[in-house]
Here is the input.
Amino acid sequence: MRIPIYQIDAFTNELFKGNPAAVCPLNEWIKEDLMQKIAEENNLSETAFFVKKDDEYEIRWFTPKGEIDLCGHATLASAYVICTYLDKNLKNVKFNTKSGLLEVSKDGGLFTLSFPSREGEKCDTPEELIKGLGKVPKEVYKSRDYLVVFDTEQDILDLELNMDELKKLDGFGVIVTAKGNEVDFVSRFFAPKAGIDEDPVTGSAHCTLVPYWKNILNKNEFTALQLSERGGKLYCTDLGETVKMSGEAVSYLEGYINV
Here is the structure.
C-alpha cells in the first residue's frame, strides 16, 4: 500500500519554524493500529489522516503515543494540503471530528480555524505541577489541559522543567501563559504523557487561552506568541462558543509511505 504523505510547517511562513505536522490523505480509512504505527514512525507531535466524504472531510489526529480529540496545527496543515494540492479552488474546508464540525477558511496565505471554546475552571495547584515547572504559579485553571498563569514572559522562559512530574498529572497537557511584552499573551505547551515534551505551536491550547485572556484584558481579538524554540504566531478572536485562530503554513516534504 502506498499512502501519500506531506509534512507541513504550520503557524509560520518560514521553513523550520512553527509546528511541523504530517498529513496523510486516504481514499478510505485504514486500521487504527496502522495509523498509530505511522504516527510513531513519523515521530512528530501529530500526524493527521483524512478521508473525503461528499463535500466534507473526516479527520483524525495521532501523536506518537495515541489518538487525540483536537489538534490545531495538524488541522491547519491538512487544510493547507487540501487547498494547495488536492482542490486548489477550495476556500472553505469542513472537517468532521470527534470534537464536532471544524471549519477552516483560506484568504490568500492565511488560514483561519474555527474551534470550540474550552474555558478552564479555577482549581487548586497540584504539587506535581509546581515540581514539574519549578515555580509556583499565580493561578491555575483546568479544562482538557491545565492552564497555568504566571506574572511575566520571563517566567515562562525560565521554567525548570521536570517531565516525570508533569506525567503524573491527570490532564492531557499543561499550558503555561503570561502577558506578553510585545504581543497580548505568550504561552508554552507540554504533553509528556502523549510523547510530546514541548509542542512548538499548539492551536488547541488557544481554545483555553483565548477565553482566559478575554476576561483578563477585556477584549476579543489577540495576537499570541508561543515561546518554543521554533516559535509561532497566532491571531485569535473570541466568539463566545468558538475561538477563531489564524496562521500561515509552508510545505517541507511531499512523498509516499510504503506499508
About this structure: The first strand starts at residue 2 and ends at 10. The mean pLDDT is 97. The two ends are 5 Å apart (CA to CA). The domain at 121-238 is CATH 3.10.310.10 (Diaminopimelate Epimerase; Chain A, domain 1).
